[in-house]
């Protein structure tokens, strides 16, 4: 990481809008490309997520960092080349806690992390009827994120995958699963694509698969 | 050929590892705990002891006679009656009979009676039935009986509750609205906990058990602490246990304090100090299991955090050991080889008072 990248990374972790904006302007003055600036800020944002999960930062800090990222994009977007701007088109992700399960804090935080990472989030909330996930995927979401806290409800994830198959859109949809009782083994067993142990890990895996 | 030992991963799957690999995982788990919770590392003797326990040949391990600790069950009678997906016995018996089985057949030292849907918000409407059940249980059992319920601030947020959901509001950058909603939910949850707690204790139950405290983050934790403080005023001799939901208190508000101490970001050794201040009698620390790491790694990490909690605490510790916590695999029926090793490490190295 060079000095400018480090400055942007540190500014994001400060979670302060003016500090981030100042770092972005300095990086532009130093000749850094908008894409490289966004990459460095994204790395900082990922670290903000990890620090939140470790109790070193709190949700308002995460949101403040996200606000700083959004504000920076107002400056950076006009400077992006057409190709880069097209690459930056938002991917739509439907998120929700599956039917019968009212535990949503992990899902909400994952939605926030993904939103901060630049995804368009359709958060359906908790106790979401399974068909609603499928409807969102039919209407343009290419990622489907499902959460469950209970062994009795996590089986709904497999049902959604079967419904996506039946609708003929499984191949076009990346399925993310998470929640306390869910493991990589369960993810593999039901044929989901991404298992996240935590919100930040989920966001990192989504970014890796989407890039 | 180098000897290999049967190990579990955090999701319960089997893996064969050499003693050197187990030692490396133990050291890594300790370092991770030090890094996350900012607690002292285990000593070399502690690390060697964990490795020895992990490498014991028997399927199960045990403590020496005289070193046994208090054993309780915070899943209530539900564990015998419910269908939890794939592994529960689903026995046809009454709630009281299920409690008697725990007392007379399974050897529990204390027990936590619980409603089928034990969140505070769900218990409040059926408090009369629960009080009658508690009285009946007290007539039919001998061991100390606590009433378990979960603070669960999440149910006070929409759509199940009257207040907006702070994480959702914050995602829309409605910070002030989110803070107000969180505080209102915390106050309503606290009042409901006091309502339930005082009525249950009036039946003669020995105490209360707050299960999965702070599952909704710092507001959930502070509301629960304030409730304990209020209940304690009217029931100074009641046994009040507080079991946590995770190793660190999530900062949903980030500004919520109890007795001048910010609640967000606290780890077990810091959480217990607030619990003591509120009047909690027994504290149940939780350390989360990483399902992608080995039992050696998870147990070492959990013991490192709980050992410091034990050192800092002036009240008994009854550590949470089970599905996905305390180094135990995230598995509906935790494998007996893994859970007995985790238990033994927790007793011998972290010096807990109960499981």
Report on this model:
- The complex is a heterodimer of chains A (211) and B (355).
- In chain A, strands 2-1-3-4-5 form a five-stranded parallel beta sheet, with helices on both faces.
- Chain A has helices at 3-14, 17-29, 34-53, 59-76, 82-87, 105-116, 130-138, 155-166, 184-190, 199-210, and strands at residues 92-97, 120-123, 143-147, 174-178, 194-196.
- In chain A, helix 6 packs across helix 10.
- The longest helix of chain A is centred in the first third of the chain and has 20 residues, at 34-53.
- Chain A has two domains: 3-85, Methyltransferase, Methionine Synthase (B12-binding Domains), Chain A, domain 1, CATH 1.10.1240; 90-210, Rossmann fold (3-Layer(aba) Sandwich), CATH 3.40.50.
- Chain A has 211 residues and is of the alpha/beta class.
- Chain A is elongated and about 55 Å long.
- The mean pLDDT of chain A is 89.
- Chain A is built from ten helices and five strands; from the N terminus they run H-H-H-H-H-E-H-E-H-E-H-E-H-E-H.
- In chain A, helix 8 (155-166) links the parallel strand 3 and strand 4 (174-178).
- Chain A is 57% helix and 11% strand.
- In chain A, 51% of the residues are buried.
- Chain B has one domain (4-348): TIM Barrel (Alpha-Beta Barrel).
- Helix content of chain B is 44%, strand content 13%.
- Chain B is built from twelve helices and nine strands.
- In chain B, the strands form three sheets. A five-stranded parallel beta sheet of chain B has the order 3-4-5-6-9. A two-stranded antiparallel ribbon of chain B has the order 1-2.
- In chain B, strand 1 (4-8) and strand 2 form a beta hairpin.
- In chain B, helix 10 packs parallel to helix 11 (295-312).
- The longest helix of chain B has 27 residues, at 175-201.
- The A-B interface holds A 52-61, 63, 67, 102-105, 108-109, 111-112, 115, 121, 123, 125-127, 150-152, 154-155, 180-181, 183-186, 197 and B 10-13, 36, 83-86, 154-155, 159-160, 165-168, 170-171, 173, 175, 215-218, 248-255, 264-267, 290-292, 323-324, 330, 332.
